[in-house]
């Protein structure tokens, strides 16, 4: 492209000199070269006014050109001096106009690709069409396809006049992607200590076509290849080959659609650690630092590992920097100097700069455009007056992201305003709001019929603003409260409506969780049969409950204690296939739940555990209600149900090789009675088998426990003869699961992982028969997909090994579909 | 079967479009006007009509309450036509759009700070403008918001029981906004926070920390002799005096009673640093 602009001198050279700038009065301005544009407007834009003073040569003349150039209307702008008459100067603005772009057609590619490219090109309509525009357009398109492995993409741009607009052109861009270029073979030279296969593993994104390379792309992409080469050298150096380097590399065409890659490496000798010397450490003794560094004389030399242990980050915070950074030494630095290298041994001098111990002065929050300050500030553990601690900063960051209102990847803590004089530091938390409301709209099969569901969850609700119309966006938001409404119905046959409101800081003073729930459910055949028909049945439940929960600081601060009080009212009419079929029941229960959750992530945990112990009890009515339970009718017996229920659930997550994670889980439940004569409660029983989804079976307050590889609710105690449909549930169950998981996609917009499982579980009605090792077993595979607005979807295939007497199709191969289970440490 | 409007939008008759856009603007059909203006601003750059077009385009965005776009267009106008009679108005409007985009005090105040900056710039550029009075009033409103934020966030520490943090945060807020209307209340709350901090401290540190609360009281009483909080503050001061006496007596007793000394050493309810998660690693459950 041509030079942007110039101040040319069409007058004697000695009159304008940079050595001797001079003031002139502008005598007149003319414009030349403008065809479509208004000359007066151009003069106005140039900000040159007749009669003004101007200092030449100087800043003023270049700003004239800049002003005009910024309009993006010209291919060239020149400011010429036409005449100097004593103190008066005359200018001519010479412009070179170019046609505008009125439309850009992308030809030769699919519609989806057109949209992608248009996004990358951004709207160039109205810009002038010059060499630069054509070049950048070509380059952007080529880059787009090169990144996808189309290295031979050609772009052809043709210009034609826009018939509707004189000063405009239309561009027809014809794109030919040609074939994708793959890698035929990767060849190594010069390697002795490393096998070629080992070196290939060091190139994670440059992989040759081979039947065993199932995962990952085999395409050749230049930028990833460059990254990989760097990674290769680093990996070799990490193995002790301190001098490792790439001598040369080449990529050449193998055939039309593939290339060969050859890399020549230099390995050099393998080095080992020698003596390690410390200096500059006043706060911590050398013996402690040596222990944390874990480097012994004779260990394989690795600069990468050394730096990691000196400066972090290590996942468990097991490095020297954590020691200092968690104790206020914000400006800690360690420098490992290689003081002597002899034969294959490297001696080190580790020089530590401790700096002052910093105290936090201010805690600042930025980026909360929806959520109120207090919702975030009260969760932050770094508080004014404390010593700076990296660990607490990280924990605060994690807890901010656990609020669910912010983009987890973009929550960034930053120490600012570091003041070494008085040893203070401010901590700034940058957050980015994300949509946190969930909509559930689904249709599915439940009980052999189509069931429609509509659920709305508002995760950042503000109750105090509910009468404050100005705060509606579109609902009152920003106080971190949660409101959820859910309706599920299948005509008049089955209906379920529920409402939940919760506040994590009830009262605003302490982190006390408060929740209020109410629901009503109906199941009836009333739409098909008249009331006197034997097939008529009806069941309605109305319930309400209140929960209070508190995070505990003892034994450690992962514990939580919850209490809840629930009242359920049951109304049954001819509800057959169950322990009693007519009457009204009240289930008034108090629940205490002690849990400890240290999972590192809600969707795909890789470490930590989740343990929950629950006790639930009703008042012992039989002690004081004067009912003779020996002769009582079901109506009398179950008017006020009484029972006590104990549950224990625990799961552990452990990272094994690579990205593989093992989830092991144990669950146990027991439902007991206070009084032998009353018998065991018909409500709140355990139903085992299948996908574990809370469907209409939940009408009896049953606990639904999944066991893959078996039909839903098909696990019945040995010696009973229910079918899966009439199974009223049992009073004792246990279940063990071991699951191997591997992530496929882990991004903000979606998380997908695959799993293989083995599990076993069983139910009993009496402790005398209980045997925790006598379980029905199964194995299988599955996948989970998490999409932010839908929640977690799961599909499993399980094979049950053990026959269930009386239910021939209960075991063997079974598919299971599930929604929103095992999220945030749920159990399934 | 495109509507008349769609046909007009698709046509290349820029003069007609311009006329119609102005008609829509005057009829207050801003969505349609904006639709047409959007295509035209590119076409008319460098031509006489552009000045009017830019001006009305900015106002259309403003009327549609898209203050972010409006602000950009107003500023753009003022930058492009600095000599225009409307430049002053547009500079003011650009700042005013920031003002309208400033949220309530409990959210991120980036736009509030920007609004103050641009309004101040307006006052500096046009010191004689009749809009200066209003700009000053707007700046005051915005400053009130920042003061309220500092006050509320400092008070939050007191509410949730982080007393030491509250003392520091009140101190910072008073340093940032010395003439705020919350000054008196914040200074009183500092006394209360310091007292609670001292009371929850280990007995060995109480004398010093209660002493600090008393000195806060003395400063407060001198500065606000008529304060409505004075009585309550005095009670806190007296409690602090009592607290010092109690702590001294206890420590004196502990000097001759090793059992008590041991008990006192254990009781350290105020931990400036909560116990490290890693520190008690051996008691951690799997």
In short:
The complex is a heterodimer of chains A (828) and B (286). Chain A is 14% helix and 41% strand.
Report on the structure:
The complex is a heterodimer of chains A (828) and B (286). By secondary structure, chain A is mainly β. Chain A contains twelve helices and 35 strands. Helix content of chain A is 14%, strand content 41%. In chain A, strands 18-19-20-21-22-23-24-25-26-27-28-31-32-33-34-35 form a 16-stranded antiparallel β-sheet. The N terminus of chain A is likely disordered. Chain B is elongated. The interface between A and B is large, with 57 and 43 residues.
Characteristics of this structure?
heterodimer, A: 828 residues, mainly beta, 16-stranded antiparallel sheet, five-stranded mixed sheet, 12 helices, 14% helix, B: 286 residues, mainly alpha, 13 helices, 0% strand, elongated, disordered C terminus
Question: Can you give the mean pLDDT of chain A?
Answer: 85
The helix fraction of chain A, in percent, is 10-25%
- Given the structure, what is the number of helices of chain B? 13
Discrete helix count of chain A: 12
Structural class of chain A: mainly beta
| Helix/strand structural class of chain B | mainly alpha
Share of residues in helices of chain B: over 70%
Largest sheet of chain B: none
Assembly type of the chains comes to heterodimer
* Uncertain stretches of 5 or more adjacent residues of chain B: 269-286
Identify low-pLDDT runs of chain A.
1-6, 9-13
Number of strands of chain A: 35
Q: Strand sequence of the main sheet of chain A, in spatial order? A: 18-19-20-21-22-23-24-25-26-27-28-31-32-33-34-35
Describe the largest sheet of chain A. Answer: 16 strands, antiparallel
What is the topology?
The complex is a heterodimer of chains A (828) and B (286).
Chain A: E1 5-9, E2 22-32, H1 39-46, E3 53-56, H2 59-69, E4 74-85, E5 88-97, E6 100-107, H3 111-121, H4 131-147, E7 154-161, E8 168-176, E9 182-189, H5 196-201, H6 222-238, E10 245-255, E11 258-266, E12 272-279, H7 286-293, H8 303-311, H9 320-325, E13 333-342, E14 345-353, E15 359-366, H10 373-377, H11 390-402, E16 412-419, E17 424-430, E18 438-446, E19 449-461, E20 481-490, E21 494-503, E22 512-524, E23 538-551, E24 559-573, E25 583-597, E26 608-617, H12 634-637, E27 644-655, E28 661-672, E29 686-688, E30 703-705, E31 732-746, E32 751-764, E33 776-787, E34 791-800, E35 812-819
Parallel strand pairs in A: 1-4, 2-5, 6-8, 9-11, 12-14, 15-17, 29-30
Antiparallel strand pairs in A: 2-3, 4-5, 7-8, 10-11, 13-14, 16-17, 18-19, 19-20, 20-21, 21-22, 22-23, 23-24, 24-25, 25-26, 26-27, 27-28, 28-31, 31-32, 32-33, 33-34, 34-35
Chain B: H1 4-10, H2 14-26, H3 30-43, H4 50-63, H5 67-80, H6 87-101, H7 110-125, H8 132-159, H9 163-176, H10 183-199, H11 203-223, H12 230-256, H13 258-266
Helix pairs in contact in B: 2-3, 3-4, 4-5, 5-6, 6-7, 7-8, 8-9, 9-10, 10-11, 10-12, 11-12, 12-13
């Amino acid at each position: 492209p041509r030079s942007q602009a110039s101040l040319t001198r069409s007058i004697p050279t000695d009159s304008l000199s940079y050595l001797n700038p001079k003031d002139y009065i502008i005598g007149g301005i003319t414009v030349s070269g403008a065809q479509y544009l208004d000359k007066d407007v151009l003069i106005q834009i140039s900000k040159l006014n007749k009669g003004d003073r101007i200092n030449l040569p100087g800043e003023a003349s270049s700003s004239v050109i800049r002003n005009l150039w910024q309009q993006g209307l010209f291919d060239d702008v020149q400011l010429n001096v036409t005449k100097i008459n004593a103190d008066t100067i005359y200018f001519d603005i010479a412009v070179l106009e170019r046609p505008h772009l009125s439309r850009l057609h992308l030809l030769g590619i699919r519609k989806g690709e057109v949209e992608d490219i248009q996004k990358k090109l951004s709207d160039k309509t109205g810009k002038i069409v010059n060499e630069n525009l054509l070049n950048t357009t070509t380059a952007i398109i080529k880059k787009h396809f090169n990144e996808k492995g189309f290295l031979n993409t050609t772009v052809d741009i043709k210009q034609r006049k826009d018939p509707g607009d004189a000063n405009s052109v239309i561009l027809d861009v014809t794109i030919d992607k040609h074939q994708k270029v793959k890698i035929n073979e990767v060849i190594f030279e010069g390697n002795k200590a490393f096998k070629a296969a080992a070196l290939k593993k060091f190139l994670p994104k440059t992989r040759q076509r081979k039947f065993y390379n199932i995962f990952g792309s085999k395409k050749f992409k230049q930028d990833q290849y460059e990254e990989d080469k760097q990674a290769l050298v680093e990996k070799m150096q990490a193995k002790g080959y301190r001098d490792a380097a790439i001598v040369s590399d080449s990529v050449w065409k193998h055939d039309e659609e593939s290339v060969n890659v050859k890399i020549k490496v230099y390995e050099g000798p393998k080095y080992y650690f020698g003596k390690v010397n410390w200096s500059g450490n006043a706060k911590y003794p050398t013996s402690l630092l040596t222990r944390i560094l874990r480097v012994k004389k004779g260990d394989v030399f690795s600069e990468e590992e050394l730096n990691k242990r000196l400066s972090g980050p290590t996942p468990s915070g097991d490095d020297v920097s954590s020691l200092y950074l968690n104790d206020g030494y914000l400006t800690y630095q360690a420098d490992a100097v290689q003081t002597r290298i002899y034969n294959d041994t490297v001696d080190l001098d580790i020089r530590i700069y401790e700096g002052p111990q910093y105290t936090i002065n201010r805690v600042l929050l930025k980026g909360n455009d929806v959520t109120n300050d207090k919702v975030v500030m009260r969760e932050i553990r770094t508080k004014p007056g404390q010593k700076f601690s990296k660990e607490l900063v990280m924990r605060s960051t994690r807890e901010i992201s656990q609020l669910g209102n912010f983009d987890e990847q973009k929550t960034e803590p930053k120490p600012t305003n570091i003041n070494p004089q008085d040893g203070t530091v401010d901590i700034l938390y940058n957050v980015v709001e994300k949509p946190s409301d969930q909509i559930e709209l689904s249709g599915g099969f439940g009980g052999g019929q189509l069931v429609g569901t509509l659920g709305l969850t508002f995760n950042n609700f503000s109750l105090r603003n509910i009468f404050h119309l100005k705060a509606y966006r579109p609902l009152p938001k920003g106080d971190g409260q949660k409101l959820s409404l859910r309706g599920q119905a299948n005509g008049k046959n089955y209906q379920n409506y529920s409402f939940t409101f919760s506040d994590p800081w009830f009262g605003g003073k302490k982190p006390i969780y408060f929740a209020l729930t109410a629901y009503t459910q109906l199941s009836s055949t009333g739409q098909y049969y008249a009331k006197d028909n034997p097939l008529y049945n009806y069941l309605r439940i109305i319930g309400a409950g209140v929960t209070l929960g508190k995070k505990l600081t003892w034994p450690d601060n992962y514990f939580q204690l919850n209490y809840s009080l629930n009242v359920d009212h049951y109304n049954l009419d001819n509800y057959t296939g169950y322990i009693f079929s007519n009457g009204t029941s009240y289930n008034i229960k108090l629940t205490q739940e002690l849990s400890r959750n240290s999972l590192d992530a809600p969707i795909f945990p890789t470490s930590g555990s989740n343990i929950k112990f629950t006790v639930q009890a009703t008042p012992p009515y039989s002690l004081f209600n004067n009912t003779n339970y020996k002769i009582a009718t079901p109506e009398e017996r179950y008017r006020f149900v009484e029972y006590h229920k104990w549950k224990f659930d625990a799961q552990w997550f452990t990272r094994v090789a690579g990205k593989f994670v093992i989830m092991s889980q144990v669950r146990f439940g027991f439902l007991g009675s206070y009084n032998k004569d009353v018998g065991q409660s018909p409500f709140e029983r355990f139903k085992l088998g299948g996908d574990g989804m809370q469907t209409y079976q939940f009408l009896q307050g049953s606990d639904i426990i999944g066991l893959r590889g078996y039909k839903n609710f098909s696990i019945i105690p040995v010696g009973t003869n229910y079918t899966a449909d009439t199974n009223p549930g049992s009073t004792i169950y246990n279940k063990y699961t071991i699951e191997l998981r591997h992530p496929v996609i882990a991004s903000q917009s979606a998380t997908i992982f695959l799993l293989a499982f083995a599990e076993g579980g069983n139910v009993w009605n009496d402790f005398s028969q209980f045997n925790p090792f006598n379980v029905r077993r199964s194995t299988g595979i599955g996948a989970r997909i998490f999409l932010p607005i839908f929640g977690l979807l799961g599909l499993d295939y399980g094979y049950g090994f053990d026959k269930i007497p009386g239910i021939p199709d209960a075991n063997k191969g079974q598919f299971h579909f599930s929604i929103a289970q095992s999220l945030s440490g749920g159990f399934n | 079967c495109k509507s008349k409007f769609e046909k007009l939008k698709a046509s290349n008759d820029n003069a007609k479009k311009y006329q119609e856009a102005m008609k829509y603007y005057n009829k207050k059909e801003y969505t349609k006007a904006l639709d047409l203006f959007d295509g035209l601003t590119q076409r008319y750059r460098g031509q006489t009509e552009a000045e009017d077009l830019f001006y009305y385009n900015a106002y259309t965005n403003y009327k549609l309450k898209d203050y972010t776009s409006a602000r950009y267009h107003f500023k753009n106008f003022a930058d492009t036509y600095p000599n225009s009679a409307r430049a002053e108005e547009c500079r003011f409007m650009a700042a005013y759009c920031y003002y309208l985009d400033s949220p309530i005090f409990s959210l991120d105040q980036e736009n509030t700070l920007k609004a103050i900056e641009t309004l101040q710039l307006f006052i500096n550029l046009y010191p004689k403008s009749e809009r200066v009075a209003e700009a000053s009033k707007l700046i005051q409103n915005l400053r009130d918001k920042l003061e309220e934020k500092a006050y509320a966030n400092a008070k939050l520490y007191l509410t949730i029981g982080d007393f030491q943090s509250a003392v520091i945060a009140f101190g910072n807020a008073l340093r940032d906004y010395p003439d705020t209307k919350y000054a008196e209340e914040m200074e009183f709350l500092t006394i209360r926070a310091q007292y609670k901090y001292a009371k929850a401290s280990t007995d060995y540190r109480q004398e010093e920390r209660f002493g600090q609360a008393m000195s806060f009281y003395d400063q407060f009483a001198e500065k606000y002799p008529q304060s409505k909080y004075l009585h309550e503050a005095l009670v806190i001061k007296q409690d602090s005096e009592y607290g010092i006496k109690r702590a001294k007596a206890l420590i004196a007793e502990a000097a001759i009673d090793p059992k008590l000394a041991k008990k006192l050493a254990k009781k350290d309810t105020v931990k400036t640093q909560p116990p490290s998660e890693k520190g008690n690693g051996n008691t951690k459950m799997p």
